Amino acid sequence: MAFKSLLTVLSDTNLVTTPVAQGLALARSLDAHLDSLCLGVDRSQTGYYYAGANAMILQETLTRAHSEAEAIENEVKSLMQGSGVRWATETGVTQIADLGRHVAARARFSDLVILPKPYGQERGAELEPTVEAALFEGQAPVLMVPDNCASVTTPKTISIGWNESAEALVAVRAALPFLKTADLVRVVVIDPPTHGPNRSDPGGMLSQFLSRHGVRVEIDVLSKTMPRVSDVLLRHARDSNVEMLVMGAYGHSRFREAILGGATRNMLEMADVPVFMAH
C-alpha cells in the first residue's frame, strides 16, 4: 500500500518545522496529501481544581489553548504555502485527558502519521499520548522524526529491529513502501533465542519474505553488549549509516514501559534518525 494520506499532529509551535518539512518532502515525493491537525491543549486537569475555582479559570485555560492552536496553524501555513503539494490544516482544542480521541479520529484514516520526538527537554506532556493514540486507537504507523533531522523520502539504508514479535511484523509490512526502494535493508537480530523453530536461521523467514518483494536484505546477528536493546540498535544504525529504523512498538504494555522503560520508550527518547513504528 502506498502512503497517500499523511498526517501531522502538532501541539507546540517550537516543534512544527521538522515534522512539517518531513511531511512535505514525502507528499511531494509520493504525490500524497498532507493534513496537519493543530491542537491547542489545555494541560490542566479540571478534577484537580480547588473547591473555590470558578468558570473564569476554566475559560482562561481554554482561551490560551485556542491562541496556541491558531499560532501553530499560522506557522504551518507559512511552511506549506507555495510548497506545490496538496495540504490542509485543521485546528482544535482539547483537554489533555481527551487528547487521544481527537488524534485517533484523524489517524484512523491516514496511511502514515508523522510526529516529533515525544521525549526530551521542553517537551509537553501531551506528546507521548499523541504517539500512543496514533498507534493504538488510530491503528496507523508512525514516523517519529528527531529535531533538526534531515527529511527522508527514499532512505537508502534501513535497519529493522527484528525479534519475531507480532508488533515487529506489523511494522515491517507497513514499511514495505520504504523497504522496496532502499538499496539495502539490514535485519538486526539481538541475542536470538537458543531454542525455537528459527534458532538455526534467525531472521531467515523474514529475509525470504522481503526478498520476494524485491528487497535486498542482509541479516546482522548481534549480542546485547550494552544495557538496553535500543542502545545496541542505535549504535548499529550509526555504524551502518542507517537513514531509517523500523521496529514494532510497545511489545510490552504501555504502563510497564512508562514505569520500567522498554525498547520503544528508550528509542523514542534517544533516536537521532527517523523511526518508523507500528503496533
- Total number of beta strands: 10
Radius of gyration from the alpha-carbon trace, in angstroms: 20 Å
Residue windows where pLDDT falls under 50 for at least 5 positions:
255-261
User: Largest beta sheet, briefly?
Assistant: 10 strands, mixed
- What's the average pLDDT? 89
In terms of quaternary structure, the protein is single chain
* SS-derived structural category: alpha/beta
Percent helix: 25-40%
Spatial strand order of the main sheet: 3-2-1-4-5-10-9-6-7-8
Please give the alpha-carbon distance between the first and last residues: 17 Å
The SSE string, one letter per element, is EHEHEHEHEEHHEHEHEHHE
Helix tally?
10
Choose one word for the global shape. globular
- Approximate strand percentage: 15-25%
Summarize the structure in short.
This protein is α/β, with parallel strands linked by helices. It has helices at 17-30, 55-80, 99-107, 127-135, 166-174, 176-181, 204-211, 229-239, 254-260, 263-270; strands at 5-10, 33-42, 86-95, 112-116, 142-145, 157-161, 184-190, 217-222, 244-248, 275-278. A 10-stranded mixed sheet has the order 3-2-1-4-5-10-9-6-7-8, with helices on both faces.
